Structure prediction request, 235 residues.
Amino acid sequence: MTSAPGHVGLGGVALLDIEGTITPIAFVKETLFPYARQRIAGYVTANQGSAAVAAQIAEIAKLTGGARPDAAAAVHVLLQWSDEDRKVTPLKTLQGLIWRAGYESGELRAPVFPDAVQQMREWNARGVPIYIYSSGSVAAQKLLLRYSDQGDLLPLCAGYFDTAVGPKVEASSYEQIATEVGNEPSGFTFFSDHVGEVAAARRAGMGAVRLERPGEVPPTADPWDGPVLRGFGGQ
Prediction:
């Protein structure tokens, strides 16, 4: 196994996944998703008159072929999408709004691996730009980093990407990120726990490192012959 600092030089760019890489998968699966699901019905009903929620209700009607926007119908669809873990914009948007309220009230606080924070601070001190690429929305990413148990981590990051640039298992998504940042793919190193994601980043021409944290990632039969870390501390 190879230590992370050797893969990102002073002129490089670090691109980081979130779940299983800088924060435990369990926080997202066992805390954030249930927190939002339990509150979707009440939140949509109470806030259906607001522009932000009304826009999502209208979008749900459009996506499902509804005759007209309807809050009760929207709640039914949102709960179904939540149970199916669908990557649908109205669901992601409303989850983000609910999580924001939870973070701001102090009910939610995001656990972040201390070694990841230490590495991010070291890169930041060395002038290495850090970008985030996660399947969660950019808004959700920022909330998690701002309200982390290691303090506000937003100042450490130069930018954020979600699946608006494309699926994380497609090389074209990483090419698009490089284009938007203004660097060649070869100037990036991507860190993720997901074999399909690091493989896609490598196909795009990026350096790629897989995080294999104990207890975080189940064994996989997918081949990966690139560097593997058990944490940003190295071996």
Q: What stands out?
A: Residues 4-23+111-229 form a domain with the Rossmann fold fold (CATH 3.40.50.1000). The beta strands are 13-16, 130-133, 159-161, 188-192, 207-211, 228-229. The chain has two domains: 4-23+111-229, 29-105. Residues 1-6 have pLDDT under 50 and may be disordered.
